[in-house]
Target: DJ-1/PfpI family protein
Amino acid sequence: MAKILIVTGDAAESLEVLYPYQRLLEEGYEVDIAAPARKQLRFVVHDFEPGFDTYTEKPGYTWPADLAFSEVDPGDYVAVVIPGGRAPEYLRNDPELRKILKSFFDADKPVAQICHGPLLTAAVGGLEGRRVTAYPALELDMQAAGADFQDSAAVVDGLLVSSRAWPDHPTWMREFLKVLRAKG
Model:
């Protein structure tokens, strides 16, 4: 059974971790969640409310990390998923995670990223010259990373599949699954 890795941490957006986790299990993949440490992760819920200029954040689900980043062998996985939320803001500073992500790009394996997740791929130089989308507030960050930002539900650039946020899940996962199937 092919394995897919999800890399995340505390304050990840609940839906952006659990939707791809469950969708990929449904497709028959084995899925591991890796974080800075093996522990019970605390996710958040980002939502939009009238009168707010940006999203709001509330406590979300908790979920166990299967592995610490230091335990991950990227060679065991056919692809990686990078959820958003606030987790990518601090995870991009983790040298173990940067090594993991760089290995996926170096091995030309599928990468799915959503919302603030592209902050991680930017940290390893994975966006230079690529077409991507992300949470719209990150347009300037994506451009600074050398990417061509597109405000779309999903953008596919080779084996990199990106999306804006959880409302785009069906389009994002449909495109990612096409890439996985084509890669074999």
Summary: The chain has a mean pLDDT of 97. DSSP finds six helices and eleven strands in the chain.
